[in-house]
Write a structure and sequence with these properties.
By secondary structure, the chain is of the alpha/beta class. The chain is built from nine helices and seven strands, in the order βαβαβαβαβαβαβααα.
Length: 212
């Protein structure tokens, strides 16, 4: 199975690559994309023999060209990522991009009738109705691969959906897990950023703390 991996140096991308290392006879990579983490991109490009990559940040793309050399084509920005999605030969698009940047890639892959392993939740937040309607008339398939969404998909796989009365998705905790509802009126952004388990960056930590 050949994978086009978008967001190759993030946590989902790294997990995907580690899985591919354990099953080299089953998985290979068509191409990678990163935003600006060129230092971590270079070793995996060499390891898996990838010949095309896309780098979202223009300055980082210049560095990537110098590091990777003439044997690897470096595309730039969102147009570069879309070029990979629209033109590469792959079986599965694993979309691990962060934020709205992942939406266009999800749509483009579904238009091609590709299987999309989706860790980019924002694709559905932004255009869930559009994606759902496209899937109804396309050979494309959407498979959730990120945490709770994947767990839900695995629970309902093979079951008669009419037999499911309800499903509860639990929150993972966070800095306010043991606080009373009344005390939440006085919390600050600094309080919300003190996640006890994960270091996810400021925006994602705030979104998590507020259940955004």
């Amino acid at each position: 199975m050949k994978i086009l991996l978008l967001g190759a140096t993030g946590s989902i991308g790294t997990s995907t690559i580690n899985c591919a290392r354990r099953h080299r006879d089953e998985f290979s990579f068509a191409a990678f994309s990163v935003n600006r983490n060129v230092e971590n991109l270079a070793p995996i490009v060499k390891e898996f023999g990838v010949k095309r990559v896309a780098v979202g940040d223009e300055a980082a793309a210049i560095s990537a060209k110098a590091i990777l050399g003439s044997d690897v084509e470096v595309l730039t920005g969102q147009d570069g990522i879309l070029s990979l999605v629209n033109n590469e030969d792959y079986d599965v698009l694993l979309n691990a991009l962060v934020g709205a940047a992942g939406f266009r890639s999800t749509v483009a892959a579904i238009k091609r009738g590709k299987r999309v392993a989706l860790a980019n939740k924002e694709s559905l937040v932004i255009g869930g109705d559009l994606i759902t309607s496209m899937l109804a008339s396309s050979a494309g398939k959407l498979i959730p691969v990120d945490s709770e969404h994947s767990a839900i998909a695995q629970c309902v796989n093979g079951e008669d959906h009419g037999d499911i009365e309800s499903m509860t998705v639990t929150a993972s905790g966070g800095p306010f897990r043991t606080r009373s509802a009344e005390s939440l009126d006085t919390v600050t952004a600094a309080d919300a950023l003190k996640h006890p388990t994960w270091n996810m960056g400021a925006k994602i930590t705030i979104d998590s703390a507020t259940l955004m």
